[in-house]
Amino acid sequence: QVQLVDSGGGLxxxxxxxxxxxxxxxxxxxxxxMGWFRQAPGNQRDFVAAIRWSSGYxxxxxxxxxxxxxxxxxxxxxxxxxxxxxxxxxxAMYYCAATNRGLLLSQWVLRxxxxxxxxxxQVTVSS
Length: 127
Hints:
By secondary structure, this protein is an all-beta fold. 0% of the residues lie in helices and 49% in strands. The chain is globular and about 40 Å long.
């Protein structure tokens, strides 16, 4: 079993930055893919970014590409999401996710591809 604890959300003005963290733990932690999703009120949970743990290969949703950066610290079992140039439309609850399964790149964006989820951290961007 893998436990994920995400943190780092808050209130920021448009154009500002935040860094989210996702600390992973568990007796047999060996996630293959870790990612971030977000969900605004009344909307579905959408893919934001993901990283392959072993290689560091990353993939982003078009809406955040070149503004957000996902990275990992192997020693700390932690994944980060650096969010720059934030916009009001980035306002949402952000969730960390992980899976031990091997995934095709096309599957990285699907909620159903991930087996473990954090509790969520709220990001609010004011205009």
